[in-house]
Design the sequence.
């Protein structure tokens, strides 16, 4: 039913104005005049347990734990042995410590890891989280939003030792001292996302795998907080049957029994197996979506990634993500083609329940096109199923975007009072997801140009 409606919408897109590029636009009347409500924050953690076979999870665990993101192999498992203490230094914004406290509580509860805040912020700690400026991070690693380093406790110390063996992960056998650098002047959600990803790598696996649809250990940046799969991996990582210094073969022998004990349901799920992700596809995606690349090279790289995905015979979320990435990059120059790629991505994601959050991003893009063409009812049909999914995954930026689009769709269907209430509610989430007031108002203005109501003064 929905696909038929979307195909009909595709037919009217020829010659239409492209939806603005970004997380997704929305619209509110006179955004500069709106009094912004207080910031909202998530309070309920509801991770979904992993649904894959333990045999597949074991393969993922080994590839995450014995390789670096560069593809370099690691000879030994490394982890902390004993309780892990964490301290915060630098210019930490008000949301950082509460978000860190919730994350530590989850690691203790869901992963069984003995981790906690250091007794004195001035004293030593196993992990130091230093809040610095985005400019300071870019000065050291131009393409990084945040990062984690062994054997240092400050950015100044890392700058001095960055080219030494001290800061090499491959030299580690036991982890004792690690620093995480987060951008204290970024939006609260970006800081929280950095905490989840970097703290997980500080204590656990160091690799990312694009083949994982339900994990923070994936460079597609779809998941913002640690998932049920991630917590299972971390629980296994600190299982008493494992220890620092073990080889891949030694871990592989013990892992099936560990996963059977921790995740008995996984023994009853048939193994599917997933083909490896070629480095060429990874490089193409990173070039297409990463910083510091011109539009033409981005588009060409996205097309290359799609060609590789099709040549691999993939039908999973990696093929869908290839279509999604190309659609994002074609929105302004080739809106009809972009819509077609989003439509294909939506169809592929529909057959991958573990990629529900990926599909929500695609639904936002499709809903923006529907709003742009004045199809409010269709936009609502696209948005409504995604709201609970996005809230469960605690993505405030995407949640705010969907709510703003929903408000616009409600206006198009004549439900003005409901639209105003939804829009006002969305702004509280936008303040967490996008940060500064100017960024929230910019998001509202970005959508003001989307709806045909704007052109008619409606």
Sequence:
């Amino acid at each position: 039913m929905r696909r038929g409606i979307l195909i009909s919408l595709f037919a009217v897109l020829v010659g239409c104005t492209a939806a603005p590029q970004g997380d997704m636009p929305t619209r509110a009347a006179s955004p500069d005049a709106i009094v912004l409500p207080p910031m909202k924050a998530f309070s309920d953690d509801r991770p979904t347990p992993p649904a894959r076979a333990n045999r597949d999870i074991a393969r993922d665990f080994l590839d995450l734990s014995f390789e670096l993101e560069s593809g370099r192999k690691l000879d030994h498992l490394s982890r902390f042995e004993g309780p892990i203490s964490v301290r915060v230094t630098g210019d930490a914004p008000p949301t950082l410590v509460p978000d860190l406290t919730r994350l530590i509580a989850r690691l203790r509860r869901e992963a069984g890891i003995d981790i906690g805040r250091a007794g004195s912020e001035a004293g030593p700690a196993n992990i130091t989280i230093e809040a610095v400026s985005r400019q300071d991070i870019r000065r050291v690693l131009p393409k990084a939003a945040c990062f984690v380093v062994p054997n240092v406790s400050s950015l100044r110390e890392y700058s001095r030792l960055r080219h030494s063996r001290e800061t090499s992960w491959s030299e580690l056998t036991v982890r004792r001292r690690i620093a995480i650098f987060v951008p204290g002047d970024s939006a609260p959600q970006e800081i929280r996302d950095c905490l989840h990803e970097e703290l997980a790598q500080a204590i656990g696996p160091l690799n990312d795998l694009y083949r994982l649809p339900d994990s923070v250990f994936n460079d597609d940046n779809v998941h913002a907080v640690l998932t049920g799969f991630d917590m299972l991996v971390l629980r296994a990582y600190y299982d008493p049957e494992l220890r620092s210094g073990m080889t891949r073969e030694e871990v592989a022998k013990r892992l099936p029994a560990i996963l059977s004990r921790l995740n008995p349901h996984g023994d009853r799920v048939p193994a599917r197996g997933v083909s490896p992700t070629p480095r060429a596809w990874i490089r193409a995606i990173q070039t297409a979506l990463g910083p510091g690349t011109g539009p033409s090279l981005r588009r060409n790289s996205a097309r290359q990634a799609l060609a590789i995905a099709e040549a691999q015979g993939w039908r999973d979320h990696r093929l869908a993500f290839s279509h999604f990435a190309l659609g994002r990059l074609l929105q302004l120059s080739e809106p009809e083609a972009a819509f077609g790629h989003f439509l294909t991505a939506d169809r592929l994601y529909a057959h991958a329940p573990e990629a529900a959050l990926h599909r929500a991003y695609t639904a936002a893009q499709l809903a923006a096109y529907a709003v742009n063409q004045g199809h409010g009812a269709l936009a609502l049909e696209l948005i409504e199923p995604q709201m609970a999914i996005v809230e469960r995954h605690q993505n405030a930026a995407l949640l705010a975007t969907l709510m703003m689009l929903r408000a616009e769709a409600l206006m198009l269907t004549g439900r003005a009072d409901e639209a105003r209430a939804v829009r006002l509610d969305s702004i509280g989430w936008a303040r967490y997801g996008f940060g500064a007031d100017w960024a929230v108002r910019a998001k509202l203005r970005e959508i003001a140009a989307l709806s045909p109501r704007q052109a008619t003064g409606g």
